[in-house]
Records
---
Amino acid sequence: MRHISMEHDACPIARSLDVVGDWWTLLIIREAFMGVRRFSDFQRHLGMARNILSTRLKHLTEAGLLEQQPASDGSAYREYSLTQKGRDLLPVLVALRQWGERYSFAPGELYSRLVDRETGHDLQPLIPRTADGRSAGDVDLDVLQAA
Amino acid sequence: MRHISMEHDACPIARSLDVVGDWWTLLIIREAFMGVRRFSDFQRHLGMARNILSTRLKHLTEAGLLEQQPASDGSAYREYSLTQKGRDLLPVLVALRQWGERYSFAPGELYSRLVDRETGHDLQPLIPRTADGRSAGDVDLDVLQAA
């Protein structure tokens, strides 16, 4: 597939996808949220080819979503951790997760759950709302193009 | 890149990405939210190669996110519209958009805005919350693996 960069598109969705719009990228971010920090652990959890993982980690670091640090145990390994920019993808991951919970599992099929550690409860459904609190799915929306 | 299907992964994020985890897919859904219904209009708005667009529309229809209908003007064209499953991707698009607004534009650079048509106001920031209303970004979360 030809890849047209959307780096200069005025739509924030297009620009976001330019950074995170592939499968592996969001799964790497998911793993980082779950506390994975080392190349070998990303590799083992995701079953990715090393060269692809290496390229994606480099891309995510250059884009400012991950940062490299010396290993927390003093070993020679380097570790990757989420920056604020990376952590701010939590709503994207939660939205994808909740859509998947609703549509991608058969009735009764078990899925992994994301819960509040303190209470064990699921998160609230993520519902886009207008400034005055109505569900955005129930109102007319407009996209105002940048000049 | 090798494509390993995540169709059987127990993580709802992985399964969602298996359906919508490519760039063009979410942009087609974005266009559909903006009222685009015809092949030629998707093609023109997205600047996609016709064969890629055709493959993606077929995939989205088979996956139940779009449905085909006779053209609303009685012509021979067929139109694509979002199903409920497709419309339920709104939180994903809003989350991507808000992240892009925050991180993908230079200060002062103009971006397209998604607004409530009635008031002209932006939507509220989408914040994942625990069942008792705390911001999920501020608490410890666990992923409970399916058995």
Note: The first strand of chain A starts at residue 66 and ends at 70.
---
Amino acid sequence: VNAPFDPGSPSHVDSPIITLLTDFGTADYFVAAMKAVILSVNPHARIVDITHEVAPQDVQEAAFTLLAAYLTFPKGTIHVAVVDPGVGSARSPIVIDAAHQLFVGPDNGIFSYVCERDVPSQIFRITNREFFRQPVSSTFHGRDIFAPVAAALSMGVSPEQLGAPHDGCVRLESLEPKPLKKGGFKAHLLHIDRFGNCVTNITRKHLPNNNAVLAINGKKIDCFKDYFAAEELKKKKRLFAIWGSAGFLEIAAQDRSAAEILKARRGDKVEVKTL
Amino acid sequence: VNAPFDPGSPSHVDSPIITLLTDFGTADYFVAAMKAVILSVNPHARIVDITHEVAPQDVQEAAFTLLAAYLTFPKGTIHVAVVDPGVGSARSPIVIDAAHQLFVGPDNGIFSYVCERDVPSQIFRITNREFFRQPVSSTFHGRDIFAPVAAALSMGVSPEQLGAPHDGCVRLESLEPKPLKKGGFKAHLLHIDRFGNCVTNITRKHLPNNNAVLAINGKKIDCFKDYFAAEELKKKKRLFAIWGSAGFLEIAAQDRSAAEILKARRGDKVEVKTL
Amino acid sequence: VNAPFDPGSPSHVDSPIITLLTDFGTADYFVAAMKAVILSVNPHARIVDITHEVAPQDVQEAAFTLLAAYLTFPKGTIHVAVVDPGVGSARSPIVIDAAHQLFVGPDNGIFSYVCERDVPSQIFRITNREFFRQPVSSTFHGRDIFAPVAAALSMGVSPEQLGAPHDGCVRLESLEPKPLKKGGFKAHLLHIDRFGNCVTNITRKHLPNNNAVLAINGKKIDCFKDYFAAEELKKKKRLFAIWGSAGFLEIAAQDRSAAEILKARRGDKVEVKTL
């Protein structure tokens, strides 16, 4: 579907961007060790942290954050995503070529949402130890496999040099809302952000005209707004729907956390009645 | 007052610094999206995070942190500050030219303290959509307006290309302590730092000789120290005043959080009796 | 023991890495101020944060994190470590040349573990004010001394230009476990990481064959594993020992925080019975 990744494009080779997305937190030495390895291989890599605050081992949260971020990066960007409860075991390290970017990490669903939006042109299993840091530990492939492999890719190594083609990759539950027999559809919360905005899996193609009522946790939301700071809403309309910056419909509240008002958690069901 | 910003100075063009100061936290995709946009426009930008831990929508906290940081940066630095409860509404996006640096963000008071210290030479309202990321969302101007505009400035675009001159800018309450009829003056806490040090709005010009007694929350502080780790103080003198690294007088405590001892919160009044 | 630091090596001069390790947190202006000073002196420095989340004034935690990170960095890296309760007082600012890297910070034990592993070839007391930011505050040597000195080193200034040789440096308690009369040895927890893994001070040279039983806080651990995600262990064997990525034996738990199960805190004793 996509043209294969082009490691020879000048912007890529001159100043490749390598992003990092992990559940390592920022208190330990883990993230610095990955950056050290990358800069040892490619002193000119530009490293951008997406986040390291993914809840420990929460692959779905990582998958969402990567989905929300990757399209803002230029072609040739290399994303390293390491939320890896299976580190050292049989799960495969992979590199995915999709949307003219590369994605490096464990095959455990972390790239699921990206692959659902942008069908990969190629996937390879990473087995070529030539590009690993030695010795390879069994507990920190972020440092010993994924970081040096990403750095190698940023130096012009092609994905096929890393190993054999890999069939498909592990998928999380689809991003698509499910149609209901009685009309409308059933969506859910993909994410709750720092401000308490509740991000659903509903996109504009599902609701091109904003003609809908949402029901979540016993509350109804029938008001759509264009931005957060509008005129005072009537109290009972304090909750509203708004198209968020990641392309999904969000449930928000005026000057407050919608998640708090709704006692919402990720995964909560959202029933959508179209009008 | 200041010479106009010089976009043509070599150090600026070769390796421009763009700082980011937001209330986005570091768990979401927001900060990474801003960096992605900046590096898409200017692959050579050097991005420095000031902080993303400003409490949600706390414009005053952001204004203080920017005040404490900007003078350590070299001429030509471009500061992007986005604490923006009014995003998408009528508040103006602006660029300020002051102290040979540029400041990009919403006109909501976030640049108030900088402008109080360094009178701007120019302010422009940002309206030229040519420099925006398309399409412009109504909820994330950090990514769609402020980041790409800062990147454009770092490439040599001049502030006047962004829009028409803007009259003044929104001001927070002044940083100046207020004289009291009975002598002395009334100050307040601008900030409480990680260590519990309580930063007042008192500068050396107000107390050139350290001859003062401070009163806050029912406690008196009459001891001035030069550094934190001095000889053991008598217990009742555990609290002391010290000139802090941001140029303001701070109230600190030996081996403890002064804020905790004082049950202090930002904004608390400090009465200063000069001797 | 080590060859002296070579400031003239091309990779060092072209794109020197300066790391930062502090207890400043990321909410205040402190870290940004250090970066601003570094980039003012050397616009080409590549700054890598190790962490800023060290608990306030916790020198031992900083020493461990530096120990776990420094060997992943290339030769010529300059590490700035500032956890500095004695700032402004009599403690010495020093630069250490060890393992073909430089270490800049206060002489309070923060470099103790690095020096225990890699005997320094040289240590100098930093007194040459020519390389300081002026005026030097008495509360923020990170910004006014350590950052500009590190930047100067990254520009090719040699450590001996900074001041006179310094005899030894402050040492924390040794990393070495202590032999017990009855056989085996007494170790302790050096660190607890984000995942609740408990890092001991035991290295492979102490237990080359994994033949041991560990006792900590009333629990015994006699199971060694190679990676975290193995087959289900019997419930009572949920805790296991594993060689961690920093080179130390760790106590971990399947899908849970070992520290929580053990109610473990840093410093807790670990008795090791060899079999």
Note: Helices of chain A lie at 10-14, 30-41, 59-69, 112-117, 141-154, 258-262.
---
Amino acid sequence: VPFGDTLAARVCERESQLVLGIDPDPRALWAGTATARGDGQGRGTGDAASAQRAADAIVGHCRALIDATAQACVAVKLQLARFEIFGAPGADALAIVAEHARAAGLLVIADGKRGDIDVSAQAYAQALLGGMDTPFGRVRGLGADLMTVNPLMGRDALQPFVTAARAGGAGALVLVRTSNPGAADVEDLRLTDGEAVWERVGAIVDELGEPGIGEAGLSDVGAVVGATEPRHLARARELMPHAIFLLPGIGAQGGRVEDLAPAFAPGRAGGLVTASRSIANAHQGGDGSPADAARAEAERLRAEAWTLG
Amino acid sequence: VPFGDTLAARVCERESQLVLGIDPDPRALWAGTATARGDGQGRGTGDAASAQRAADAIVGHCRALIDATAQACVAVKLQLARFEIFGAPGADALAIVAEHARAAGLLVIADGKRGDIDVSAQAYAQALLGGMDTPFGRVRGLGADLMTVNPLMGRDALQPFVTAARAGGAGALVLVRTSNPGAADVEDLRLTDGEAVWERVGAIVDELGEPGIGEAGLSDVGAVVGATEPRHLARARELMPHAIFLLPGIGAQGGRVEDLAPAFAPGRAGGLVTASRSIANAHQGGDGSPADAARAEAERLRAEAWTLG
């Protein structure tokens, strides 16, 4: 099944376009979840034991965050950096959290923003998607449904990700116009024909995605388009009529759901609204428990986007 | 000590600007090294046991490759994708190989081409460099001396890497003009003022690196400039007079050492010549052992670059 159809069905079934961003800060985990994993209260000393304890605590936090909000979401987005810092225990934690999200009925987006060429790009794609066969046996991948990729190095850096995703019924989300101020430094540069660099990247996304358009009209090559600059959304949609847009920047970064309408032009699954800190930290400054506050904020965002789409 | 001075001293001491690219393909490991680790001949079944066996075999291969060629090299460049595919055992293998390289007197370049913003960029930098303090204890990083980073998202995606590197006496290598054909798709696009996108990125590299120039005249913010397009090297040097250039593309990709002279303008440590497959696969089609062939090829490249610089 082409990924666009998988997503369209899932969005419809869950009545949600909301993506829970999982970005765990070891210094700001929810209280009372650190023992949730139950099998890793390591008492050892040294760096390796610390990494194991931190990774275990992060698993507990992430499980609680998923359990609290899954009902309002269609997917989780895992920020890989926050797991890699813990080395091998972090790699295990990432796999456990992805599995927990799947068990809760959610799709999994691996947010690693990888970009490389040839066999390296292929190895990244295998790591994040379905793994590979080796002379030592089958090696499992993370099993993600979508992965973010960086287009700086051009088509031959994107194609291995697209090929691997398409073969496995998954998708790739290309960084087109990101939500940070630094997007002005490279992505917004003007080319001789008047277009911005990001618009040219958008055209490449449309081209690479063309063979992967499903019956719902959505392609398996999507785009990351920041929600902080809504004036770009209409233009992005013009350039990429079939792309799934991942829309970061809502909440903590200042983006507003009501500005996202152009993203939903090809249907509700055309735009995935992602929020991280505004959900995980919703309890700060309030009375409720972290889980209750997160659930309420996720449901609020879900309903707001659903009304719009 | 600013990283540029560390590198200049190391290049001088080892009489080498050669970087051994470590990019292990599990289907093409050197024969007879798979048991070199000695502690991981797992007999289990299933994906996890396969990943452990593959990671162990890769450690054996990489140790043998380093042992054979270290004398001709100043650094190793670890392609992170090839380790990540093995999950937790891959993360352990990466750390073991990095430590083996250090013990052989080599600097370590983490080639992950990471690019993200804010706390995510900071987490990647901590993972690759010196780790972080957590409420669960100190977590160790990979301890790399240099890491490759992707500038697509702009200055605020680069600065956390630069800040972390500078604080730890390490350096960052920004992708400026890569060695793949796809570089034409984005990096080579012409801007309204006639410059290419990559030239604008080069100017950002120069600006970010200015506070990190050491006594040897080299900065802690360097650039990846492909050796496959030598006509770009002189222009890159003009834009980034103090940057350390990492020069991929020699050998298998068609680049030639004799075209690299402009890279060495600020001194021999101004250019790091990196070769992967042409060293690891030097024995193919010949009579000698993999180790002997790799050693000879590494020494040939070292001498060629040293004569030029």
Note: The first strand of chain B starts at residue 18 and ends at 22.
